[in-house]
Amino acid sequence: MTVMVGLALAVALFQPKSTTTVVIGDIGSRAFVFRSVGLDQRRESRPVLRGWMCRRAPGASVQRLAVIAEDRAGAVIWKQVVAPPAFAPGRSGECRVLRIAVPPDVAPNAAVWRLARP
């Protein structure tokens, strides 16, 4: 019994090496915000940055979005310009799904993901 409790406690306290990635979204506009953006790595498909891009206030729409991956040292290891979700003109309070495919060899090496205007 004591062995089982000790084993259960050891398994519960064991913390694997953290591989948490950080996503920073700043496109220079208070009209748009990013919510719940994170890297989704599933074995059956390519890694994907998923989340929400929300429009808080009416303003000029964003035509292009730069996605930048940085390693732990801060060096850029991948950069791509993508088309963000489209929003209805003049409306606010809307959220759209943000889904950006990422190369499989870049995802494990990226520590920080930046979303910015190109």
Summarize this structure as a short list of keywords or feature phrases.
1 helix; 10% helix; Immunoglobulin-like; 118 residues; mainly beta; 40% strand
Shape: globular
Q: If helices are DSSP runs of H or I spanning 4 or more residues, what is the number of helices? A: 1
In terms of DSSP E residues, the strand content is 35-45%
Major β-sheet strand ordering: 1-7-4-5
CATH topology: Immunoglobulin-like
Describe it.
By secondary structure, this protein is mainly beta. The protein has one domain (20-116): Immunoglobulin-like. Helix content is 10%, strand content 40%. The chain has one helix and seven strands. It has one helix spanning 2-13, and strands at residues 22-25, 32-40, 48-55, 65-70, 76-82, 94-101, 112-116. The strands form two sheets. The protein has a four-stranded mixed sheet, with no helix packed on it. The protein has a three-stranded antiparallel sheet with strand order 2-3-6, with no helix packed on it. β2 (32-40) and β3 (48-55) form a beta hairpin. The protein is globular and about 40 Å long. The model is unreliable at 7-20 (pLDDT under 50).
What is the gist of this entry?
Helices cover 10% and strands 40% of the residues. It has 118 residues and is mainly beta.
Layout of helices and strands, plus pairs?
Layout lengths: L1 H12 L8 E4 L6 E9 L7 E8 L9 E6 L5 E7 L11 E8 L10 E5 L2
Parallel strand pairs: 1-7
Antiparallel strand pairs: 2-3, 3-6, 4-5, 4-7
